[in-house]
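Interim report, section 4.2 (structural modelling).
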Amino acid sequence: MKKPWSGRFREKTSKVVESFTESISFDYRLWKYDIEGSIAHTKMLAQQGIISKEDSEKIIEGLEGIAKEIETGKFRFRKELEDIHMNIEAALIRITGDAGKKLHTARSRNDQVALDLRLYLRSETKEILSLIKRFQKTLLHIATKHLHAVMPGYTHLQRAQPVLLSHHLLAYVEMLLRDMERFQDGLKRINKLPLGSCALAGTTFPIDRIYVAKLLGFDGISENSIDAVSDRDFAIEFLSNAAILIMHLSRLSEELILWSTEEFRLIELPDAFTTGSSIMPQKKNPDVAELIRGKAGRVYGNLLSLLTTMKSLPLSYNRDLQEDKQPVFDTVDTINSCLVVLNEMFPGIKFNAKRMYETAGDVYSTATDIAEYLVKKGLPFREAHETTGKIVLYCLKKGKKLEELTLKELNTFSKFIKNNIYSCLKAEESVKNKKSRGGTSPDEVKRQIRRLKKIVNSKE
Ligand code: ARG
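Predicted structure of the assembly:
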């Protein structure tokens, strides 16, 4: 098959080189955006009198026909034609003859591929935003359902203070909210039209880039043709946002894995979202959560991969840039599947509220409440901390829980302690008193649920 650039060549491209340089095996995924971009470009060429109206109609009709062929699986992608751009253009020329040969006027594959990737990432960003939003709604629903369930809150993975399960879940809703903001902000930089930059220098034709931007729904155009064909920072930013997102999903998965162990027993994962062992009949393994945690590695890797590809590239376009696509596609696929599966799994998780409550008040996790009690009686905090520490040490020696101490015993540590100390030793009381903004009291968590529901619903 004759190459579109065969004019200055005396030899045919080696087969090995064809296989080595092709990108059609993966960039076929950009077909829709390539055609959308070409149609807008054609309309502009006709409007500016660069090609005739008749030619533009033939081209557009041809491109629409190709779109149908691809959609229905009838189109044959050819490796000899390298990439999606040349595959579509060659097919167009086959169908429309001379008209099709005019499509590439005032355009290069360099601005074309930058355009396609931007259109692709714009669309995928919107999809990811809607998947995050759906998952946030699921988490908010579960938080509302288990509003009053008390669980142990951890620091250093040691039981620290009782918190509400709902409060803990809302922490993830907040993280996801910032993830959304990052993706939304990234859209500002993705949504600029690079087309019209041509190979790198612009063109002698009287093109109208603003018109093309309008047709394709861009917020503006790139202002430097060299920059527009050279940089992939918008894709790196996307990969970086995705890396942060999956870091959050991975932490959540890690908690599901821990909480579902026999040692924690705080939750039970749904059978449909766990797998068994081929040898140990009793096993029920949290593979879904583990895979999400594991996939964080490849998403980080994809970010590093593109950063490294870019780091020494002289301006402007270099073929190295073709290596941008697989990391981007892989990250999109990975993020989407993780969000879908988490969202489906979560409603089936059984929270063991009884065990959560029992472990929440255990191991002196209300000691801080005693210290705060003493401060309210007039002790400086450091002294109150010291006194409470001694009470805990006494309990450890006697093998007693805090609430098992008599008032007499307690008074040997401080005269200020009265009978009402016992109510603040209960996990639910401890939680109820954490009324500070952002704290774990049911009233505050209820307010946060309302606030978050409003924010999540206001996102388009
Ligand atoms: N397949 C190429 C890519 O993905 C398209 C641009 C090719 N441009 C070129 N001058 N060879 O980057």
